[in-house]
Specification:
heterodimer; A: two-stranded antiparallel ribbon; elongated; B: alpha+beta; Ubiquitin-like (UB roll); Alpha-Beta Plaits; 4 helices; 9 strands; NADH_UbQ_OxRdtase-like_20kDa (chain A); 3Fe-4S (chain A)
Chain lengths: 186, 241
Amino acid sequence: MNAPVEHPPRLKVATCSLAGCFGCHMSFLDVDERIVDLAQIVTFDRTPLTDIKHCSEHVDVGLIEGGLCNVENVEVLREFRAHCRYIVAVGSCAITGGVPAVRNKFSLESCLREAYIEAPGIENPHIPHDAEIPLLLNKVRPIHEVVRVDYVLPGCPPPADAFWELLSALVEGREPQLAYENRRFD
Amino acid sequence: MADKGHFSFDGVQLPFLQGQTILQAAADAGHYIPHLCYRPEFPPHGSCKLCSVKANGKFTSACFEPVTEGMKVESETPEIQGYRKRVVQMLFAEGNHYCPFCQQSGNCKLQAVAYHLGMEDTHYAHQYPRRQLDASHPDAMIDYDRCILCELCVRASRDVDHKQVFGVAGRGIEARLLVNSPSGLLGDSRFSITDAAAQVCPVGAIVPKKAAFAVPIGQRRYDTHDIGEELACPPSENKGD
Protein backbone atom coordinates (compact mmCIF):
# COMPACT_ATOMS: atom_id res chain seq x y z
CA MET A 1 0.00 0.00 0.00
CA ASN A 2 1.31 3.41 -0.91
CA ALA A 3 2.19 5.74 1.89
CA PRO A 4 0.04 8.88 1.86
CA VAL A 5 1.70 11.79 0.09
CA GLU A 6 2.86 14.37 2.62
CA HIS A 7 2.09 17.97 1.75
CA PRO A 8 3.81 20.68 3.74
CA PRO A 9 1.22 22.27 5.98
CA ARG A 10 -0.21 25.41 4.45
CA LEU A 11 -0.93 28.43 6.55
CA LYS A 12 -4.52 29.59 6.26
CA VAL A 13 -4.54 33.39 6.38
CA ALA A 14 -7.53 35.70 6.72
CA THR A 15 -7.28 39.49 6.58
CA CYS A 16 -9.61 42.44 7.06
CA SER A 17 -9.62 46.20 7.17
CA LEU A 18 -11.66 47.73 10.00
CA ALA A 19 -11.21 51.50 10.48
CA GLY A 20 -8.25 51.24 8.12
CA CYS A 21 -7.22 52.89 4.86
CA PHE A 22 -6.21 49.67 3.07
CA GLY A 23 -2.64 50.96 3.14
CA CYS A 24 -1.53 47.98 5.24
CA HIS A 25 -2.99 45.61 2.63
CA MET A 26 -1.13 47.56 -0.07
CA SER A 27 2.08 47.27 1.91
CA PHE A 28 1.45 43.53 2.27
CA LEU A 29 1.19 43.34 -1.54
CA ASP A 30 4.51 45.21 -1.70
CA VAL A 31 6.16 41.82 -1.16
CA ASP A 32 5.84 41.98 -4.99
CA GLU A 33 6.97 38.82 -6.78
CA ARG A 34 7.47 37.06 -3.48
CA ILE A 35 3.69 36.67 -3.47
CA VAL A 36 4.30 33.73 -5.81
CA ASP A 37 6.40 32.08 -3.11
CA LEU A 38 3.80 33.06 -0.56
CA ALA A 39 1.08 31.34 -2.60
CA GLN A 40 3.04 28.08 -2.13
CA ILE A 41 2.82 28.22 1.64
CA VAL A 42 -0.33 30.24 2.31
CA THR A 43 -4.01 29.79 1.52
CA PHE A 44 -6.16 32.89 1.72
CA ASP A 45 -9.44 32.62 3.56
CA ARG A 46 -11.74 35.58 4.20
CA THR A 47 -9.91 38.68 2.95
CA PRO A 48 -10.67 41.67 0.71
CA LEU A 49 -8.43 39.84 -1.82
CA THR A 50 -10.87 36.91 -2.11
CA ASP A 51 -14.63 36.59 -2.39
CA ILE A 52 -15.03 34.63 0.85
CA LYS A 53 -17.61 36.30 3.08
CA HIS A 54 -16.84 34.71 6.45
CA CYS A 55 -13.94 33.02 8.18
CA SER A 56 -13.64 29.23 7.89
CA GLU A 57 -13.93 27.19 11.04
CA HIS A 58 -10.16 27.05 11.60
CA VAL A 59 -7.90 29.83 10.35
CA ASP A 60 -4.25 30.04 11.34
CA VAL A 61 -3.55 33.74 11.09
CA GLY A 62 -5.89 36.75 11.06
CA LEU A 63 -4.24 39.97 9.93
CA ILE A 64 -6.28 42.91 11.24
CA GLU A 65 -5.76 46.36 9.74
CA GLY A 66 -7.45 49.42 11.26
CA GLY A 67 -8.85 50.27 14.64
CA LEU A 68 -12.46 50.03 15.76
CA CYS A 69 -14.74 52.91 14.77
CA ASN A 70 -18.18 51.28 14.48
CA VAL A 71 -20.18 48.29 15.71
CA GLU A 72 -19.60 46.30 12.53
CA ASN A 73 -15.84 46.57 13.11
CA VAL A 74 -16.34 45.00 16.55
CA GLU A 75 -18.47 42.21 15.09
CA VAL A 76 -15.90 41.41 12.38
CA LEU A 77 -13.04 41.51 14.89
CA ARG A 78 -14.87 39.08 17.17
CA GLU A 79 -15.48 36.72 14.24
CA PHE A 80 -11.77 36.77 13.47
CA ARG A 81 -10.86 36.15 17.10
CA ALA A 82 -13.28 33.23 17.28
CA HIS A 83 -11.82 31.52 14.20
CA CYS A 84 -8.15 32.49 14.07
CA ARG A 85 -5.41 30.83 16.07
CA TYR A 86 -3.28 33.98 15.93
CA ILE A 87 -4.59 37.52 15.69
CA VAL A 88 -2.10 40.07 14.37
CA ALA A 89 -2.66 43.79 14.95
CA VAL A 90 -1.32 45.25 11.71
CA GLY A 91 -0.34 48.92 11.55
CA SER A 92 -0.67 51.95 13.79
CA CYS A 93 -4.48 52.05 13.60
CA ALA A 94 -4.98 48.53 14.92
CA ILE A 95 -2.33 49.10 17.60
CA THR A 96 -3.15 52.63 18.86
CA GLY A 97 -6.30 53.73 17.01
CA GLY A 98 -4.01 55.67 14.69
CA VAL A 99 -4.85 58.79 12.73
CA PRO A 100 -8.64 58.06 12.81
CA ALA A 101 -8.43 58.31 16.62
CA VAL A 102 -7.76 62.03 16.22
CA ARG A 103 -11.55 62.26 16.18
CA ASN A 104 -11.49 61.24 19.85
CA LYS A 105 -10.65 64.90 20.47
CA PHE A 106 -14.22 65.78 19.53
CA SER A 107 -17.65 64.52 20.47
CA LEU A 108 -19.19 62.05 18.03
CA GLU A 109 -22.15 64.37 17.60
CA SER A 110 -19.97 67.32 16.59
CA CYS A 111 -18.13 65.11 14.03
CA LEU A 112 -21.42 63.98 12.46
CA ARG A 113 -22.85 67.52 12.46
CA GLU A 114 -19.71 68.86 10.80
CA ALA A 115 -19.72 66.16 8.11
CA TYR A 116 -23.42 65.92 7.28
CA ILE A 117 -25.05 69.19 8.35
CA GLU A 118 -22.71 72.13 8.78
CA ALA A 119 -20.05 71.58 6.10
CA PRO A 120 -20.40 73.91 3.09
CA GLY A 121 -22.18 72.58 -0.01
CA ILE A 122 -24.33 69.97 1.77
CA GLU A 123 -27.67 69.20 0.14
CA ASN A 124 -30.51 67.67 2.17
CA PRO A 125 -28.55 67.99 5.42
CA HIS A 126 -29.28 65.15 7.83
CA ILE A 127 -27.29 62.59 9.78
CA PRO A 128 -27.74 59.16 8.12
CA HIS A 129 -29.68 56.80 10.36
CA ASP A 130 -30.69 53.80 8.23
CA ALA A 131 -30.59 50.50 10.15
CA GLU A 132 -28.19 49.09 7.53
CA ILE A 133 -25.55 51.61 8.45
CA PRO A 134 -23.43 50.50 11.43
CA LEU A 135 -23.50 52.94 14.32
CA LEU A 136 -20.26 54.71 15.13
CA LEU A 137 -18.55 54.10 18.46
CA ASN A 138 -18.14 57.19 20.62
CA LYS A 139 -14.37 56.79 20.31
CA VAL A 140 -12.00 55.01 17.94
CA ARG A 141 -10.24 52.18 19.80
CA PRO A 142 -7.24 49.94 19.20
CA ILE A 143 -8.18 46.28 18.76
CA HIS A 144 -6.35 45.09 21.88
CA GLU A 145 -8.99 46.86 23.98
CA VAL A 146 -11.62 44.39 22.66
CA VAL A 147 -9.84 41.10 21.87
CA ARG A 148 -6.58 39.40 22.79
CA VAL A 149 -3.82 40.10 20.29
CA ASP A 150 -1.02 37.59 19.66
CA TYR A 151 1.36 39.52 17.39
CA VAL A 152 1.75 43.09 16.15
CA LEU A 153 3.29 44.64 13.06
CA PRO A 154 3.93 48.31 13.88
CA GLY A 155 4.12 50.99 11.20
CA CYS A 156 1.90 53.22 9.12
CA PRO A 157 2.06 51.02 7.18
CA PRO A 158 4.40 48.22 8.29
CA PRO A 159 7.08 47.52 5.65
CA ALA A 160 6.46 44.58 3.27
CA ASP A 161 9.48 42.86 4.81
CA ALA A 162 7.73 42.88 8.19
CA PHE A 163 4.75 40.96 6.72
CA TRP A 164 7.21 38.60 5.06
CA GLU A 165 9.08 37.96 8.30
CA LEU A 166 5.89 37.37 10.28
CA LEU A 167 4.39 34.85 7.85
CA SER A 168 7.72 33.10 7.19
CA ALA A 169 8.27 32.71 10.91
CA LEU A 170 4.79 31.30 11.51
CA VAL A 171 5.19 28.85 8.62
CA GLU A 172 8.55 27.75 9.98
CA GLY A 173 7.18 27.52 13.50
CA ARG A 174 9.49 30.11 15.06
CA GLU A 175 8.95 33.47 16.76
CA PRO A 176 8.96 36.47 14.37
CA GLN A 177 11.96 38.79 14.80
CA LEU A 178 11.53 42.27 13.32
CA ALA A 179 14.81 43.99 12.44
CA TYR A 180 15.29 47.63 13.54
CA GLU A 181 14.28 49.06 10.15
CA ASN A 182 11.14 46.89 10.04
CA ARG A 183 9.96 48.03 13.45
CA ARG A 184 8.82 51.62 13.01
CA PHE A 185 5.78 53.62 14.07
CA ASP A 186 5.49 56.01 11.11
CA MET B 1 41.33 65.73 41.79
CA ALA B 2 38.39 63.51 42.53
CA ASP B 3 39.04 60.04 43.88
CA LYS B 4 38.75 57.18 41.46
CA GLY B 5 37.11 53.86 42.14
CA HIS B 6 35.54 50.94 40.38
CA PHE B 7 32.07 49.47 40.23
CA SER B 8 30.47 46.56 38.44
CA PHE B 9 28.13 47.39 35.54
CA ASP B 10 26.35 44.33 34.14
CA GLY B 11 29.35 42.30 35.27
CA VAL B 12 31.93 44.64 33.71
CA GLN B 13 34.31 46.61 35.94
CA LEU B 14 33.99 50.34 35.17
CA PRO B 15 35.88 53.28 36.68
CA PHE B 16 34.09 56.19 38.34
CA LEU B 17 34.96 59.52 39.91
CA GLN B 18 33.83 60.27 43.43
CA GLY B 19 30.42 61.97 43.35
CA GLN B 20 29.41 60.70 39.91
CA THR B 21 25.97 59.22 39.42
CA ILE B 22 25.58 55.76 37.92
CA LEU B 23 24.32 57.31 34.67
CA GLN B 24 27.31 59.69 34.39
CA ALA B 25 29.88 57.01 35.16
CA ALA B 26 28.29 54.56 32.73
CA ALA B 27 28.10 57.21 29.99
CA ASP B 28 31.76 58.17 30.51
CA ALA B 29 32.67 54.52 30.03
CA GLY B 30 30.57 54.36 26.84
CA HIS B 31 27.57 52.50 28.24
CA TYR B 32 24.08 53.72 27.38
CA ILE B 33 21.35 53.72 29.99
CA PRO B 34 17.94 54.69 28.51
CA HIS B 35 16.70 58.10 29.67
CA LEU B 36 14.36 60.90 28.58
CA CYS B 37 14.31 63.60 31.29
CA TYR B 38 18.09 63.66 31.83
CA ARG B 39 20.53 65.94 30.03
CA PRO B 40 24.07 66.36 31.32
CA GLU B 41 23.87 70.18 31.46
CA PHE B 42 20.93 70.17 33.89
CA PRO B 43 20.44 68.77 37.37
CA PRO B 44 18.73 65.36 37.25
CA HIS B 45 14.95 65.34 37.38
CA GLY B 46 13.91 61.75 38.03
CA SER B 47 10.49 61.79 36.36
CA CYS B 48 10.83 59.44 33.40
CA LYS B 49 12.17 56.47 35.41
CA LEU B 50 13.69 54.98 32.26
CA CYS B 51 17.18 55.00 33.75
CA SER B 52 16.05 52.69 36.53
CA VAL B 53 18.72 50.13 37.37
CA LYS B 54 19.30 47.71 40.20
CA ALA B 55 22.12 48.90 42.45
CA ASN B 56 23.19 46.28 44.95
CA GLY B 57 19.87 44.54 44.32
CA LYS B 58 17.61 47.57 44.78
CA PHE B 59 15.76 49.51 42.08
CA THR B 60 16.96 53.10 41.84
CA SER B 61 17.25 55.92 39.29
CA ALA B 62 20.70 55.94 37.71
CA CYS B 63 20.46 59.70 37.09
CA PHE B 64 20.29 60.38 40.87
CA GLU B 65 22.11 57.52 42.55
CA PRO B 66 25.80 58.17 43.31
CA VAL B 67 28.18 55.33 42.56
CA THR B 68 29.91 53.80 45.54
CA GLU B 69 33.06 51.67 45.58
CA GLY B 70 32.35 48.10 44.53
CA MET B 71 28.68 48.80 43.79
CA LYS B 72 27.02 46.09 41.72
CA VAL B 73 24.78 47.65 39.05
CA GLU B 74 22.43 45.69 36.78
CA SER B 75 21.02 47.53 33.76
CA GLU B 76 20.52 45.43 30.63
CA THR B 77 18.82 42.46 32.26
CA PRO B 78 15.55 41.16 30.76
CA GLU B 79 13.76 42.17 33.98
CA ILE B 80 14.92 45.79 33.86
CA GLN B 81 14.53 46.17 30.08
CA GLY B 82 10.99 44.76 30.38
CA TYR B 83 10.22 47.22 33.17
CA ARG B 84 11.54 50.12 31.04
CA LYS B 85 9.43 48.99 28.10
CA ARG B 86 6.30 49.11 30.26
CA VAL B 87 7.20 52.67 31.31
CA VAL B 88 7.50 53.76 27.67
CA GLN B 89 4.21 52.04 26.85
CA MET B 90 2.58 54.02 29.68
CA LEU B 91 3.89 57.26 28.18
CA PHE B 92 2.52 56.30 24.75
CA ALA B 93 -0.91 55.27 26.07
CA GLU B 94 -1.13 58.38 28.25
CA GLY B 95 -0.72 60.90 25.42
CA ASN B 96 -1.67 61.13 21.77
CA HIS B 97 1.49 59.91 20.09
CA TYR B 98 0.44 59.70 16.46
CA CYS B 99 3.89 59.13 15.01
CA PRO B 100 2.58 58.77 11.43
CA PHE B 101 1.97 62.52 11.15
CA CYS B 102 4.16 63.94 13.93
CA GLN B 103 6.91 66.20 12.62
CA GLN B 104 9.33 64.84 15.22
CA SER B 105 8.98 61.26 13.99
CA GLY B 106 12.45 59.88 13.29
CA ASN B 107 14.05 62.50 15.54
CA CYS B 108 12.03 61.83 18.69
CA LYS B 109 13.72 60.40 21.76
CA LEU B 110 10.55 58.79 23.10
CA GLN B 111 10.09 56.94 19.82
CA ALA B 112 13.81 56.09 19.65
CA VAL B 113 13.84 54.70 23.18
CA ALA B 114 10.77 52.62 22.28
CA TYR B 115 12.64 51.25 19.26
CA HIS B 116 15.70 50.59 21.43
CA LEU B 117 13.66 48.62 23.95
CA GLY B 118 11.96 46.57 21.24
CA MET B 119 8.54 48.04 21.96
CA GLU B 120 6.04 47.09 19.25
CA ASP B 121 2.65 47.83 20.81
CA THR B 122 1.29 50.13 23.51
CA HIS B 123 -0.13 47.38 25.76
CA TYR B 124 -2.32 49.68 27.87
CA ALA B 125 -5.75 51.21 27.21
CA HIS B 126 -5.27 54.62 25.63
CA GLN B 127 -6.25 57.76 27.54
CA TYR B 128 -6.86 59.96 24.46
CA PRO B 129 -6.43 63.28 26.32
CA ARG B 130 -8.19 66.36 24.96
CA ARG B 131 -5.87 69.27 25.57
CA GLN B 132 -5.92 72.47 23.53
CA LEU B 133 -3.07 72.93 21.06
CA ASP B 134 -1.27 76.27 21.41
CA ALA B 135 -0.29 77.78 18.05
CA SER B 136 -0.32 81.40 19.28
CA HIS B 137 3.44 81.97 18.90
CA PRO B 138 4.73 82.96 15.45
CA ASP B 139 7.74 80.60 15.56
CA ALA B 140 6.74 77.61 17.66
CA MET B 141 3.72 75.63 18.77
CA ILE B 142 2.91 73.34 21.67
CA ASP B 143 0.99 70.09 21.35
CA TYR B 144 0.31 69.33 25.01
CA ASP B 145 -0.93 65.82 24.17
CA ARG B 146 2.64 64.81 23.30
CA CYS B 147 4.26 66.28 26.42
CA ILE B 148 5.87 63.71 28.73
CA LEU B 149 6.48 66.18 31.60
CA CYS B 150 10.26 65.78 31.56
CA GLU B 151 10.51 69.48 32.51
CA LEU B 152 13.58 70.01 30.33
CA CYS B 153 11.92 73.15 28.93
CA VAL B 154 11.12 74.27 32.48
CA ARG B 155 14.74 73.85 33.53
CA ALA B 156 16.17 75.41 30.35
CA SER B 157 13.89 78.45 30.54
CA ARG B 158 14.62 78.98 34.22
CA ASP B 159 18.33 78.14 34.42
CA VAL B 160 19.67 79.09 30.97
CA ASP B 161 17.27 81.63 29.47
CA HIS B 162 16.35 83.15 32.88
CA LYS B 163 12.79 83.68 31.65
CA GLN B 164 10.73 81.10 33.58
CA VAL B 165 8.33 80.66 30.66
CA PHE B 166 7.28 77.12 31.59
CA GLY B 167 5.97 75.35 34.65
CA VAL B 168 4.08 72.18 35.51
CA ALA B 169 0.81 72.39 37.42
CA GLY B 170 -2.00 70.04 38.41
CA ARG B 171 -1.93 66.74 40.23
CA GLY B 172 -1.81 63.12 39.14
CA ILE B 173 -2.96 62.43 35.60
CA GLU B 174 -4.13 66.08 35.41
CA ALA B 175 -0.54 67.35 35.70
CA ARG B 176 0.38 69.34 32.61
CA LEU B 177 2.77 71.88 31.21
CA LEU B 178 1.76 75.52 31.67
CA VAL B 179 3.01 78.70 30.02
CA ASN B 180 3.77 81.64 32.27
CA SER B 181 1.88 84.47 30.56
CA PRO B 182 -1.28 86.39 31.46
CA SER B 183 -3.34 84.47 28.90
CA GLY B 184 -1.49 81.18 29.34
CA LEU B 185 -0.59 81.33 25.65
CA LEU B 186 2.95 80.95 24.35
CA GLY B 187 2.50 83.91 22.01
CA ASP B 188 1.94 86.19 25.01
CA SER B 189 5.03 84.93 26.90
CA ARG B 190 8.69 85.98 26.67
CA PHE B 191 9.49 82.76 24.77
CA SER B 192 11.76 83.10 21.74
CA ILE B 193 12.67 80.43 19.18
CA THR B 194 16.35 81.11 19.95
CA ASP B 195 15.86 80.19 23.63
CA ALA B 196 17.51 77.10 25.03
CA ALA B 197 14.00 76.03 26.04
CA ALA B 198 13.07 75.86 22.35
CA GLN B 199 15.77 73.25 21.69
CA VAL B 200 15.46 70.74 24.52
CA CYS B 201 12.05 69.10 24.07
CA PRO B 202 12.86 65.40 23.49
CA VAL B 203 9.46 64.73 21.88
CA GLY B 204 7.08 66.59 19.54
CA ALA B 205 5.48 68.78 22.23
CA ILE B 206 7.34 72.08 21.66
CA VAL B 207 8.11 72.21 17.95
CA PRO B 208 9.24 74.97 15.58
CA LYS B 209 6.79 76.19 12.97
CA LYS B 210 7.56 76.10 9.24
CA ALA B 211 10.30 73.53 9.79
CA ALA B 212 8.27 70.33 9.61
CA PHE B 213 9.12 67.36 7.37
CA ALA B 214 12.29 69.00 6.05
CA VAL B 215 14.46 65.90 6.47
CA PRO B 216 13.81 63.02 4.05
CA ILE B 217 12.79 59.69 5.53
CA GLY B 218 15.92 57.59 5.80
CA GLN B 219 18.07 60.56 6.85
CA ARG B 220 16.36 61.35 10.13
CA ARG B 221 18.31 60.87 13.33
CA TYR B 222 16.99 57.46 14.36
CA ASP B 223 16.06 56.03 10.96
CA THR B 224 19.09 53.82 10.77
CA HIS B 225 20.84 53.94 14.12
CA ASP B 226 19.72 52.98 17.58
CA ILE B 227 19.67 55.68 20.26
CA GLY B 228 21.79 53.34 22.38
CA GLU B 229 24.74 54.00 20.07
CA GLU B 230 24.77 57.69 20.98
CA LEU B 231 26.22 57.56 24.47
CA ALA B 232 28.77 55.06 23.28
CA CYS B 233 30.80 57.97 21.89
CA PRO B 234 33.26 59.95 24.05
CA PRO B 235 31.39 62.10 26.58
CA SER B 236 33.20 65.27 25.46
CA GLU B 237 31.53 64.96 22.05
CA ASN B 238 28.18 64.14 23.52
CA LYS B 239 25.68 66.60 24.83
CA GLY B 240 23.25 63.88 25.75
CA ASP B 241 20.85 64.32 22.88
